[in-house]
C-alpha cells in the first residue's frame, strides 16, 4: 500500500515493490524473464530503454550492487510512476529516470549494458488509449531503431539484452548484423511443453562469439511452473 490509497495497485517482489497503475504496460512475465535471464559482466552503467514502471531498472539494481542505471521513458504517466517506484525503493541513489523519446535523446556517454523490453505488437489490433498503444506498438520504437540505438550507445565491450516475439527473430537478426552486433546468447521460451515458442530472449555485443543457445519452458502444465523457471526467477518472486 502507498500513501495515495487503494486505487494504486502494486506488485511486490522480494526486495522492492512496483506500482503499475499508470504505466501502460503492467508487470508481466516478459519483463521478469528478461531481468532474471540477462547476464552482464560487472557493468558500471546500464541503460533501460522504455523503462515503463521501472521494473527492469529495479531488477538490475538488485542484481548488480554497484550499478548506476538510467531509465528512459517516453510516456509521462509511466515516467512519473517509475520515478515514484524508484524513490520508494532502496535503490533510489543508483537509478535515474528521465522522460524522453529515445529516438531524440542524446546521452553523453556509452553504456556498459543496455536492456529493453521493447514494444512489439506492430501487427496486432491496437489497444485502446494512446499510452497503451505507445507501449505495445513499434510506432515509437521499432526493432530496427532499437538495433541502431544499441549499436550507437553500447560500449565496445558491453552487452545488450532484450526480449522479442519469436516471429520477429529473423528480422531482428538482420537488423543487428547490419549494425555490427553479434548474438551472444539466445533463449527460446515456451509457455508449456506442447506449445510453440512465443518469445525469444537475446543478448548482443560487438565481439564475435559462437552464440549460446538455450530453451526455457515456463509451465509443465497450467499454473504448474517448471523447476527451471522457478530457479531463474527465485531471487525476485515472493
Give the terminus-to-terminus CA distance. 16 Å
CA-based gyration radius: 17 Å
Please estimate the helix content.
25-40%
Low-confidence residue ranges: 1-6, 121-138
Number of strands: 12
Q: Supply the number of helical segments.
A: 7
What is the SS-derived class? alpha/beta
**Share of residues in strands:** 25-35%
Can you summarize the main beta sheet?
A: 8 strands, mixed
Strands of the widest sheet, in order across it, are 5-4-3-6-7-9-8-10
SSE pattern, N- to C-terminal: EEHEHEHEEHHEHEEEEEH
Can you tell me the overall shape?
globular
Instruction: Report the mean per-residue pLDDT as an integer.
Output: 88
Give your account of this protein's structure.
This protein is of the alpha/beta class. The protein is built from seven helices and twelve strands. The strands form three sheets. It has an eight-stranded mixed sheet with strand order 5-4-3-6-7-9-8-10. Strands 1-2 form a two-stranded antiparallel sheet. It has a two-stranded antiparallel ribbon with strand order 11-12. It is globular and about 40 Å long. The model is unreliable at 1-6 and 121-138 (pLDDT under 50).
Question: Can you tag this structure with a few keywords?
Answer:
238 residues, alpha/beta, 8-stranded mixed sheet, two-stranded antiparallel sheet, 7 helices, 27% helix
